[in-house]
Design brief:
405 residues; mainly alpha; 2 strands
Length: 405
């Protein structure tokens, strides 16, 4: 009997195809499960590091917060932007949160809290106001600034990069600058890209600006800065990404540029020709191998193999990372730095291949950063992955349970 004589759904060819498809699906599920178990085994050996990292990035619901309350790293939870934040949640665990003393800002630096004037007032005596002054997500207004005028940290190097004066989310306009003229840290203002920069603004406060910072500010009209040639600062200008960079400009002032800062400038017209032309001027020990805007290729790495500082190269996320490249220079990489690099082709195989070389505390941070990056597009339907392994809620629970054993 030919295929045409069978009912459509019962043709032998179609039955064989369906059977093969089912077998492939079963095999794929078995492979995925094996990879999941291998990953769980790896992570369970370094559970504390991964729990610390997951505390920072994973969308932990209130039921899981309560179930593993004594296992979470609450300092990292305080900066987690994926928690179901509410005033009630903040109140419930008020004595566990890191309110802002830590370098990363804790709750005070977390931009995902439900920021409203009422929330700021409710916990007024708990916030770290130096971190709150830098938070871009507050409902900034002239009224809010005035209300807590004596609490904000307006600037000073010791107060976390110029405090309120460096915050680009304030409602910047000439009136706000004038209203608090004697409060601002003018170094911070000079570095702030969000000010309404103009020749008039620069002229009005000419003797207040820090011209070193101003020369490095990409938002300041460079033509205005050039008019103030007596105040021009070449070192800062060399790192300014707002200048109209060209080979001609580089050549014209080649004796004035700070080549260290120039080596780290991402918007130069980078090419192999440019690198070769000024080979003896670049900062090979630091800024050039860290610059992710170079035309990176395996050929470029080989050509200057003896010049690179490999500790810096190990940190660069723009290299053409492959397992083959990692293996080729296995004895040159700085593995503690490589373990921090988010751009590596992370997978269970890669983790196992170099398991004795990784700094696992750093690997944990990197994988959690990758998870966090994927969760930037998290919609509760597409969970983050490491390789082919889906890191869903059940994966988190299984890892927590294993690490308790």
């Amino acid at each position: 009997m030919s295929d045409s004589q069978y009912p459509l759904a019962n043709r032998p060819g179609q039955q064989l195809a369906k059977s093969a498809a089912r077998q492939l699906e079963v095999a794929a599920n078995l492979d995925a499960d094996r990879e999941r178990q291998r990953l769980l085994e790896l992570l369970a050996r370094h559970a504390d590091d991964f729990i610390r990292g997951l505390s920072e990035v994973f969308p932990i619901d209130e039921e899981l917060l309560e179930r593993y309350e004594d296992r979470w790293d609450w300092e990292q939870l305080s900066r987690n932007e994926a928690l179901p934040w509410s005033e009630e949640l903040i109140e419930r665990y008020a004595d566990r949160w890191e309110w802002g003393v830590a370098w990363h800002g804790g709750l005070a630096g977390n931009e995902s809290l439900p920021w409203k004037p009422h929330l700021i007032e409710r916990f007024e005596d708990r916030w770290d106001w130096s971190k709150l002054s830098l938070n871009r997500a507050l409902p900034w207004s002239a009224e809010l600034i005035e209300r807590y005028e004596d609490r904000w940290v307006w600037g000073g190097r010791e107060f976390f990069y110029f405090g309120l004066s460096k915050n680009e989310s304030l409602p910047w306009d000439p009136h706000l600058i004038e209203r608090f003229e004697d409060r601002w840290d003018w170094r911070g203002l000079s570095w702030n890209k969000a000010l309404p920069w103009s020749a008039e603004l620069i002229d009005r406060y000419e003797y207040r600006w820090d011209w070193c910072f101003l020369a490095g500010n990409a938002a300041v009209p460079w033509s205005v800065l050039l008019e103030k040639s007596d105040r021009w600062h070449w070192r800062s200008a060399s790192g300014n990404e707002g200048l109209p960079w060209s080979q001609g400009l580089i050549e014209r002032y080649k004796h004035e540029w700070c080549w260290e800062r120039l080596s780290g400038n991402r918007v130069l017209p980078w090419s192999e020709e440019l690198i070769a032309r000024y080979e003896d001027r670049w900062s090979w020990e630091l800024w050039l191998p860290l610059n992710d805007a170079l035309p990176w290729s395996e050929e470029l790495i080989v050509r200057y193999e003896g010049r690179w500082r490999w500790e810096c190269l190990s940190q660069n996320e723009a290299l053409p990372w492959t397992v083959k490249l990692i293996e080729h220079y296995e004895d040159r990489w700085a593995w503690d730095e490589l373990s921090r690099n988010e751009a590596l082709p992370w997978s269970v195989e890669l983790l196992e291949r170099f398991r004795d070389k990784w700094d696992w505390e750093h690997v944990a941070l990197v994988l959690n950063c990758q998870i966090g990056g994927q969760l930037g597009h998290y919609d509760k339907k597409s969970w983050p992955r490491i390789g082919a392994v889906e890191l869903d809620r059940s994966f988190l629970i299984e890892m927590m349970e294993r690490s308790d054993q």
